[in-house]
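We were asked to recover a plausible sequence for a given structure. The inputs and outputs are reproduced exactly as logged, with field labels preserved.

PROBLEM: sequence recovery
POSITIONS: 738
GIVEN STRUCTURE:
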């Protein structure tokens, strides 16, 4: 936003002085110096500044960062209060170091400070001098310098994490039959929380610095199945969890039992063999939840073959600990037909059995009975009689944990499903037509660490070693609310988290409302990009802020007048300045370099809570630019990894494969607008005092100009100011097309 330009700049007089206010003590008073002696508001400014400093400010749209240069001043070591000024500036009765420095432009020797233009606010950071000269180093206002987050830690040097966003845990209980994402523990909208201590049979993990009454239950990440499983705060009841955190030290924590009791539903990891009659596909376990869309089919059409067994085999994932409950679920249809019979029958003699032979236990799930020329779709003893003419779900009727513990391989056993033909008490024979369709295979287990030296469960020493090596569990409670600047509301969007970090951890307090927040460009209206983000280890705050700026598509800076402001490209641009030939000098027109153009992006986003990677990937391209610029397949391509961005709007929409018409719809559309093609760049010196208030982030249009931009027109083109350099009597600017 343009600097507030006093009416005194309406004059085209070229007389300019710069005023330097060197604040001291509590910063309510200052000593003034200038290029030449002047008086403003009855305060003397001593004409002691010998050099001509420049003030450089810039923004980088590609990285969404800003820079403000430091200022070096050389003063004459003049006599001040009967001593050298070097004695005043340091070591005297007033303290100037690390105090505010303000720089104003004074036009035409005006005598009111309100008629001067404030162009820089910084702090005095270093001083040196000799007999004749004093050198002052002034750094731009950066309240995040030296700040790291998180800041609250325990005596064991574990930090209470900082998390922002809308997180969701997996529910404690599992439905029967299991069906949805909660039952299958598919939700990955969690963040890591450090395990702090083991106290008796209970472990504590640090959730952060916010109290929450729900959804804070800890989860264990089972890497082999990529699932986050709620941990019980009870020795035997899996769905008793610690959902509300408790006060713990200087923050909050949740509890879980040392046996890591947890319940999960999962599916086989791969098909290892398909016996004769079984289809060679993976449709029986290819869905993330309960799924009846596709199936793996078994067919048999031949003469009856007594004790003929046909097997399909799957591998099981390696789950930590041993199961105290192990149940297999099968979703299927089936039919069997007996024809052309011969021989004697002694009742329902032919049985087509469906057998679970995992762990070699040969558990009969049910059977279709036949003793005449007939067709049946009833699975007997499953338990009772289950019609499988349409999709039905059955499960093992007894807990399989004993078979697991008796096995020499445990989770390494093959999951075998068999179709077997048997005959009882007769010599009946005939032709058999059999068909089974397996739509879904589900394995339900309650597992835990072994503190009782149970076979195949490990040992007590193994269990304690596992706990000693457990650094993190995972929490699904929502992140921080704002710290008072918006009535402690939920923070779900990237720009909201950015503002909260500034207010929470710097001297930029809640009383400040950044420019372009709710009015002007109104980032809080235009941006709805969602966040899930966490910081567990001390990290420079500026690194976190700039990460959120890049992923949120905006820039934050303090302007020369000390005001915090958000800069971004809105969907519809309203220009702040219209410039003509007479307003400018030294005009140069160029194109952004081809090396800056990115026409293809592989974007990885929705960061995985437990792994270093991301859960979603999209390949997005600008096909128009690829064609116009004759860009090769692997040219001007970049891989982007976003750790905070999870989608736009409340539905967390996926990033599209091509940009949309509104640049703020999503991350790719915004940056494709910046990087997807070459842009005009205009460098010029602003000579009209009417435009001395131009600042980085302002939007500019060019009207009458001495030359057209290459073969195009200035009409309809918008530019943003990407850099300014202020010197006495000069304002150099760079304008970039957007």
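RECOVERED SEQUENCE:
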């Amino acid at each position: 936003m343009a600097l507030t330009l006093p009416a005194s700049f309406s004059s085209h007089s070229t007389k300019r002085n710069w005023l330097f206010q060197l604040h001291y003590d509590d910063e309510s008073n200052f000593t003034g110096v200038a290029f030449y002696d002047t008086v403003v508001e009855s305060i003397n400014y001593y004409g002691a500044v010998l050099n001509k400093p420049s003030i450089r400010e810039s923004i980088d749209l590609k990285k969404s960062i800003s820079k403000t240069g430091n200022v070096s001043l050389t003063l004459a070591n003049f006599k001040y209060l009967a001593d050298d000024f070097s004695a005043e500036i340091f070591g005297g009765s007033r303290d100037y170091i690390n105090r505010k420095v303000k720089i104003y432009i004074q036009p035409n020797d005006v005598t009111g400070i309100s008629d001067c233009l404030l162009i820089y606010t910084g702090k005095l950071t270093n001083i040196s001098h000799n007999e004749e000269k004093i050198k002052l180093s002034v750094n731009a206002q950066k309240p995040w310098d030296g700040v790291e987050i998180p800041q609250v830690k325990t005596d064991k040097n574990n930090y209470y994490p900082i998390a922002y966003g809308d997180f969701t845990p997996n529910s404690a209980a599992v439905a029967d039959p299991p069906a949805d994402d909660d039952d299958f523990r598919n939700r990955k909208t969690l963040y890591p929380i450090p395990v702090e201590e083991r106290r008796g049979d209970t472990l504590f993990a640090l959730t952060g610095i916010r109290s929450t009454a729900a959804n804070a239950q800890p989860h264990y990440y089972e890497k082999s199945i990529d699932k986050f499983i709620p941990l019980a705060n009870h020795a035997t009841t899996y769905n008793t969890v610690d959902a509300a955190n408790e006060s713990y030290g200087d923050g909050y924590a949740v509890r879980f039992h040392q046996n890591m009791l947890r319940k999960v539903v999962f599916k086989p990891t791969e098909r290892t063999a398909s016996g004769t009659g079984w289809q060679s596909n993976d449709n029986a376990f290819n869905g993330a939840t309960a799924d009846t869309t596709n199936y793996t089919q078994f067919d048999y059409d031949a003469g009856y073959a007594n004790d003929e067994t046909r097997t399909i085999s799957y591998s099981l994932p390696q789950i930590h600990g041993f199961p105290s409950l192990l149940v297999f679920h099968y979703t299927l249809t089936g039919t069997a037909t007996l024809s052309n019979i011969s021989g004697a029958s002694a009742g329902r003699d032919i049985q087509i059995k469906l057998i679970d032979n995992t762990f070699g236990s040969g558990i009969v799930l049910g059977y279709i009975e036949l003793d005449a020329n007939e067709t049946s779709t009833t699975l007997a003893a499953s338990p009772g009689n289950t019609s499988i003419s349409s999709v039905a779900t059955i499960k093992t009727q007894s807990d399989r944990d004993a078979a697991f513990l008796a096995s020499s391989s445990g989770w390494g056993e093959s999951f075998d499903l068999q179709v077997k033909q048997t005959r009882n008490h007769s010599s009946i024979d005939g032709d058999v037509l059999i068909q089974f369709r397996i739509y879904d295979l589900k394995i339900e287990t309650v597992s835990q660490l072994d503190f009782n030296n149970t076979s195949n469960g490990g040992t007590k020493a193994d269990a304690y070693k596992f706990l000693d090596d457990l650094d993190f569990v995972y929490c699904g409670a929502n992140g921080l609310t704002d710290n008072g600047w918006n009535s402690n509301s939920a923070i779900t969007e990237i720009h909201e988290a950015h503002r909260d970090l500034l207010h929470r951890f710097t001297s930029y307090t809640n009383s400040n409302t950044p420019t372009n927040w709710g009015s002007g460009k109104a980032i809080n209206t235009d941006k709805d990009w969602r966040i899930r983000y966490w910081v567990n280890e001390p990290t420079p705050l500026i690194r976190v802020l700039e990460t959120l700026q890049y992923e949120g598509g905006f820039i934050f800076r303090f302007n020369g007048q000390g005001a915090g402001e958000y800069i971004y490209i809105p969907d519809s641009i309203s220009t702040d300045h219209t410039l003509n030939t007479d307003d400018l000098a030294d005009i140069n027109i160029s194109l952004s370099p081809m090396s800056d153009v990115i026409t293809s992006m592989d974007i990885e986003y929705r960061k995985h809570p437990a792994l270093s990677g991301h859960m979603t990937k999209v390949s997005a391209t600008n096909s128009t630019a690829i064609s116009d610029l004759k860009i090769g397949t692997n040219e001007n391509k970049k891989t982007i990894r976003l750790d905070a961005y999870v989608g736009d709007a409340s539905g967390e929409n996926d990033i599209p494969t091509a940009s949309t018409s509104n640049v703020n719809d999503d991350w790719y559309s915004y940056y494709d607008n910046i990087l997807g093609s070459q842009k005009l760049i205009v460098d010029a010196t602003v000579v009209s005092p009417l435009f001395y208030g131009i600042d980085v982030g302002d939007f500019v249009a060019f009207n009458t100009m001495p030359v057209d931009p290459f073969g195009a027109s200035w009409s309809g083109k918008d530019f943003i100011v990407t850099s300014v350099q202020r010197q006495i009597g000069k304002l150099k600017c760079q304008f970039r097309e957007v």
